[in-house]
Amino acid sequence: MAGIIPPFTHATATEKVKAAQALWNTKDASKVAKAYTPTSIWRNRDQFFSGHPAIVAFLTAKWERELDYRLRKELFAFTDNKIAVQFWYEYRDAGEADAGRTVWRRCYGLEDWTFAEDGRMRKRQMSGNEVEIGEGGRWFGDGVDVDAVEIGEEHW
Fold it and tell me: With 90 as the cut, is the pLDDT of residue 14 above it?
């Protein structure tokens, strides 16, 4: 992901978004953190933090709660060194699983990214809203290519 550097074109911004999607879908917090500057600033909903150790801690805890996590990101807008992304992800709630229930959730949201000259992200802001979905309402089931799913305008 760091090899794609600003200033962005439509093609390179799209490539950057899809590289981030693939990286996040690994659910490897240490690997994901390397795509960010060492002092990268994050706002994720109501949480504010910065730096690789905080990013790794946040993502590790996130993916312990969000089982079977599957993410899709799409380019929303871009400028020379900024990209806005629309995303959707689904997961099975670990807290519910611990209680013997299977509850699936989908998060809809937007991210605002600012990049350093070397292509690593130096700022990430995320806003998202979650809804509970049934098993039959999942878009990103096992074996499904998240990029092949048709997402209707009502969800954009």
Answer: yes
